[in-house]
Amino acid sequence: MKKKRLLAVFFILLLVLVVASITVGSSSLKSSDAVRLIWLKIIGVKIDSIYEKIIFNIRLPRIILAALVGAGLGVSGAAFQGIFKNPMADPYVLGVSSGAAVGATISIVFRLETYGMAFTTILAFLGAFISLLLVYNIAKVGKKLPTNTLLLAGVAINFLFSSIISLSMILHREAMERIIYWTMGSFNEASYSQILIIAPVVIIISVSFQLLYRQFNIIASGDEGAYSLGVEVDKIKKLIIVVSSIMIAVIVSVSGVIGFIGLMIPHIARLIVGANHRELFPFSFVLGGIFSLGCDTLARILLSPTELPVGAITSLFGAPFFIYLLWKRKRA
């Protein structure tokens, strides 16, 4: 019961942060006015205000997208750390992010983005999906998918695609700034169409993982024990890896590469509720949304009107946390 109440508290905190994020920016407004305008919109009252366009056309899509991306990264990070039994695993470990970055780089270099950001999003998703297929086929041994081979294949693909991106930036210096900005992550192109794509994916996969929490707990305790209990470890691992990677591909295609959320958030959730995936997944979902939205809000206001890449803010928090994890592991 205490954990449910705590989860409710974090969810309320997320809603408060949503309202706070709406009020800050180049054009600030009172939180009471923001809540009133949102309520009037919900009940169908016509609003003739410049703030309506600012809230509903610019800020709200961005806020919702930031929260969904953070939630998805948090859940997928918890899933990867559970099945790999590795606290250093994160959603980008299989090279999906670098594949998406290559797709986006192609769009930027050939100026396809001038025809609409949809081209960049589609190519980023295709790049991520190709990366997943390459890693999966390289690591596959018969019908088995050895964890160590999978991780090494992911590292190799990451290096390969990173070198392609570096060469593209050298050969096309005029596109370098835009490529770097995309690879550091941003929500400044957020739209309701992107939300309609990402929301079902993140919510359905997160709920599916929640329903499989027992299997996650058994696999996290060791493969031998899982086999003895009749759990089809290889089959479940393959399913989780593929499904998680599809979610990451969708996320990265709309937001760029936002680091450390999938690494940090599951650890923070474990400190609060323990290692049981029954509580770990919902807490990772909500805390991921809070952290991502909080970092994006800081990215908007720290050097306003200049906007920082949200990945730069997450890295400011994430890099010290990663060093702490390494130090803790060394002492253990």
CATH architecture: Orthogonal Bundle
What is the CATH topology descriptor? ABC transporter involved in vitamin B12 uptake, BtuC
Number of strands: 0
Q: In the residues, how many domains can be counted?
A: 1
Instruction: Tell me the structural class.
Output: mainly alpha
Uncertain runs: none
How many angstroms separate the termini? 32 Å
Number of helices: 14
Explain the overall architecture.
The protein has one domain: ABC transporter involved in vitamin B12 uptake, BtuC (Orthogonal Bundle). Helices cover 77% and strands 0% of the residues. The radius of gyration is 20 Å and the shape is globular. It starts with a helix and ends with a helix. One of its GO terms (cellular component) is plasma membrane. Pfam families: FecCD. One of its GO terms (biological process) is siderophore-iron import into cell.
Summarize the structure.
This protein has 332 residues and is mainly α.
Task: Give the arrangement of secondary structure elements.
Blueprint: H1 2-23, H2 31-42, H3 50-84, H4 96-109, H5 117-139, H6 147-171, H7 176-183, H8 192-211, H9 213-220, H10 223-228, H11 233-255, H12 261-273, H13 277-301, H14 310-331
Please give a handful of descriptors for the protein shown:
332 residues; transmembrane helix; mainly alpha; ABC transporter involved in vitamin B12 uptake, BtuC; membrane; ABC_BtuC-like; transmembrane; transmembrane transporter activity
